[in-house]
Write a structure and sequence with these properties.
alpha+beta, Rossmann fold, 3 domains, 7-stranded mixed β-sheet, 5-stranded parallel β-sheet, globular, binds flavin-adenine dinucleotide
Length: 388
């Protein structure tokens, strides 16, 4: 294995971006993944219905970083796609994040006007956190905040995290704000696009380089071992650099215990109809056991008659031994888990040639653009180090 300058574990964005950057810098790279495909959680494939599906849940690309988008554009064409989500609240389909249109659809005209006026008088911004509404001095704003909290956030959060909303990290709650206006886009980043031929094709292009060897169905924990401060690959001391983008608790055999995650039971359904719903994503915060339904044709721009595929997401606790929820999706961000993560990180820190990158290795919720940014940064640091 010492013929490779870099061994990269994980062929998602974190690993594949570093692989490409180092290959372009004349380094020999081996990238491995335990799954039978590249592209990590961005993986897309055609189902038996001919619909291109996102196997690990819908992935929408959005960013404010020109650097990230310029990098990706080298490997794929993109089409403009502004994501819009609706939710079923009290039997009505309304925009999510909750905005003035949602308010007008759910309150009578007079009440809606009163709430909008109070919101405009008290906030001089486009978005506000639900926490700022429910803790506000003004009773109209507070009541409105409580209404949105009850109907949009509370049950959804309970389903998604199986804990009380009070115990959720603020950054998670703030991910879905209340919009003080009519902008019904789910994200308001300046760059919102989807890869024309899908993410898998983008990854194929990204990894298509003479200096990159890709090995699938290969689990790092079966080839990497440790002794004192040395790292061994297939029992031979490895002197190159390892970029690890998988779960570090798994790599270290869960010696301090398992890092907790939330997972999803992803249930795909095929229908012999043109469209199942009127929107790409419909959220179900309350009545149903699933949190949302995605209809892929809206995301992929495919025109198919009498065929469509939807996905229902049922949140579950991550359990590596249960097929329904064996994928660690969302880290549970609390102080106890951060502490546990730090133990693993410190342990890995003993090995000077292992670098951690990505959502699993860093135990962080990263959107794609942030992972790419992080992988680009790490690559630049490594290249700089090589030059010195
Ligand atoms: C349901 C869901 C929806 C999301 N939607 C969006 C969205 O719309 N927009 C957005 O920007 N972000 C979204 N994200 C976030 C996005 O998925 C992450 O930013 C992205 O997955 C991070 O890339 P990564 O390379 O760190 O991890 P991953 O894509 O998970 O790649 C890690 C890879 O490492 C491999 N691996 C792990 N351990 C080992 C091992 N021991 N040996 C070998 N291989 C290993 C895994 O098989 C995997 O392929 C979503 C996340 C989820 C869970």
């Amino acid at each position: 294995m010492n013929k490779f300058d870099y061994i990269i574990v994980g062929a998602g964005f974190a690993g594949s971006v570093v692989a490409r950057m180092m290959a372009d810098n004349n380094k020999k790279v081996l990238i491995i993944d335990k799954r039978q495909h590249i592209a990590g959680n961005m993986y897309e494939c055609f189902d038996e219905n001919g619909v291109r599906i996102h196997l690990f849940g819908p992935h929408i690309f959005h960013t404010n970083s020109d650097k990230v988008f310029d990098f990706l554009k080298k490997y794929s064409d993109f089409y403009k796609y502004e994501h819009k989500v609706v939710g079923r609240i009290e039997g009505k389909i309304v925009p999510i994040p909750f905005n003035f249109k949602s308010l007008e659809l759910l309150f009578d005209k007079e009440k809606a006007e009163e709430i909008k006026t109070k919101l405009k008088e008290n906030f001089n911004q486009e978005k506000v956190s639900i926490l700022d509404l429910i803790n506000h001095d003004n009773v109209v704003i507070r009541d409105f905040g409580n209404y949105v909290y009850k109907n949009v956030f509370e049950n959804y959060t309970a389903k998604q995290w199986e804990i009380d909303i009070k115990d959720i990290d603020k950054s998670v709650i703030n991910r879905v704000p209340v919009v003080l206006g009519y902008d019904d886009r789910y994200f308001n980043d300046k760059i919102q696009y989807m890869p024309t031929e899908g993410y898998t094709k983008l990854f194929e292009n990204l990894l298509d380089h003479n200096n990159i060897t890709c090995k699938l169905n290969s689990n790092a924990k079966d080839i990497i071992s440790f002794d004192n401060d040395k790292v061994f690959i297939d029992n031979v001391e490895y002197n190159g650099k390892i970029i690890f983008t998988g779960a570090i608790d798994e790599l270290l055999n869960y010696k301090y215990g398992q890092l907790p995650y939330r997972s999803l039971n992803l249930v795909f359904e095929n229908y012999k109809i043109d469209y199942f719903q009127d929107n790409s994503v419909v959220n179900y915060p309350n009545e149903e056991k699933y949190t949302r339904i995605t209809e892929f044709k809206y995301l992929t721009n495919q025109i198919l008659k009498n065929k469509t595929t939807i996905l229902k997401e049922y949140p579950l606790k991550y359990d590596v031994n249960d097929q329904k929820c064996k994928d660690p999706f969302y880290p549970i961000l609390d102080s106890k888990n951060y502490e546990l993560y730090e133990k693993y990180k410190n342990e890995i820190g003993k090995y000077k040639n292992i670098y951690l990158c990505g959502r699993l290795a860093e135990y962080k919720y990263y959107n794609m653009d942030l992972v790419i940014e992080r992988a680009l940064q790490l690559s630049e640091i490594l290249i700089e180090g090589e030059i010195k």
